[in-house]
Design brief:
Keywords: Iron, Metal-binding, Oxidoreductase. By secondary structure, the chain is an alpha+beta fold. It is built from 9 helices and 14 strands. The strands form 3 sheets. The protein has an 8-stranded mixed sheet with strand order 1-2-10-7-12-5-4-3, with helices on both faces. A 4-stranded antiparallel sheet has the order 6-11-8-9, with no helix packed on it. Strands 13-14 form a two-stranded antiparallel ribbon.
């Protein structure tokens, strides 16, 4: 494993050791993951059970979806077609980094297929409800839509299963029983959210210090598993060197990082680290993160053995922690838009104030 703490990008670990009968190889994997969690909370894994063919197929659908006409995507806009955070998200909907412009990405939210009769939907639990799928149109046949749905849900299911395996390794890194997150109920009825993402390349004349695909941020939930395409752009902040490190796309690999919930859970022993996307490649960039949150009602408190000099955080439910993150990032974008509209209107008023022209 490449040495951490020297300004090197998150290492690539062979996760197949977790499934092997070699206890030495498995222990080495645990130690390597622990080192990454202590250093910057990021690592990449190969040797996992999610087939490369399925990864490639969902990435193809990622591109096909965003190639649809805007009017087709807007029919399933997550802000107008439902209240449970499923469907299409417009470009420039979020600002995750204070002081930057709205982000150059559009998204599509997918989750477990939860019917309206399910208690999670009835009680309006975090991101819980039926998915929103595009309708057949000139660009998509009914068969295409069904293939998109089948592929997305199969991929989602397999990645969530992998997330639970990663949690078993994380338990071992913290000297807990491998099944700790299962036996304590955290993974039972867990909620996860998958986002298909598309990043247009940044315009050449865009202000470099203000324009982001995604601004510098930490993730809200427990762990994130990210599938990249072949276009770079993801950067991770390295506290040891104060540098932004490029995470080069690796075919078949998942980028894994810890979220804010895991950092609080470990009483800041482990790191939920800053990362961002800046796409200056001149190419369209696509990625697919799966944000594994956990059972929405589960109360996250200090893990056994992580108390140190004292607990730093009050207990918080998974649901409330993630909702707080949404409120911050989407609220920031809405405030920016209102301010921009207000300033634009003020400017128009100033231009016509002496001409007797009414500005609506």
């Amino acid at each position: 494993m490449p040495s951490t703490g020297t300004g090197q990008a998150p290492p690539i670990l062979d996760f197949s050791a977790f499934y092997s009968d070699d206890p030495i190889a498995k222990q080495k994997l645990v130690e390597n993951v622990r080192d990454c969690c202590l250093h910057n909370g990021f690592f990449q894994i190969t040797g996992h059970p999610v087939p490369l063919e399925l990864q490639n197929k969902i990435m193809e659908w990622n591109k096909k979806f965003f190639d649809l006409p805007l009017e087709e995507k807007m029919k399933i806009n997550k802000d107008t077609s439902n209240t449970w955070n499923r469907g299409y998200e417009l470009l420039k909907s979020q600002i995750l980094e204070e002081g930057t412009l709205p982000e150059l990405k559009e998204g599509f939210y997918i989750g477990d297929e939860i019917p309206k009769t399910h208690p999670y939907f009835i009680n309006k639990k975090l991101n819980s409800g039926p998915n929103m799928w595009p309708a057949p149109c000139s660009s998509l046949t009914a068969s295409d839509v069904e293939d998109f749905k089948t592929t997305a849900l199969e991929y989602y299911t397999k990645v969530c299963a992998l997330a639970q395996d990663i949690l078993k390794v994380l338990a071992l890194t913290l000297d807990l029983e491998e099944s700790w997150f299962d036996t304590n109920g955290f993974t039972h009825g867990a909620v996860a959210t998958m986002r298909l993402l598309h990043y247009p390349t940044q315009p050449p004349d865009s202000p470099q210090k203000l324009t982001r695909g995604i601004g510098a941020h930490t993730d809200f939930g427990t762990i994130t598993l990210l599938l990249q395409d072949r276009v770079a752009g993801l950067q991770v902040y390295d506290h040891a060197t104060s540098d932004w490190l490029d995470v080069t796309p690796t075919p078949g690999a998942f980028v894994v990082n810890l979220g804010n919930l895991m950092m609080k859970w470990s009483n800041d022993r482990y790191i939920s680290n800053l990362h961002r996307v800046i796409n200056v490649s001149g190419q369209e960039r696509y990625s697919i993160p799966v944000f594994y949150s956990g059972n929405p009602e589960f109360v996250v408190e200090c893990l056994p053995g992580c108390e140190g000099a004292g607990k730093k955080y009050e207990g918080i439910t998974v649901e409330q922690a993630v909702l707080n993150g949404y409120a911050d990032s989407y609220g920031r974008a809405e405030r920016w838009k209102r301010d921009a509209e207000s300033k634009g209107k003020e400017g128009r008023v100033a231009e016509v104030v002496g001409k007797g022209v009414q500005v609506a």
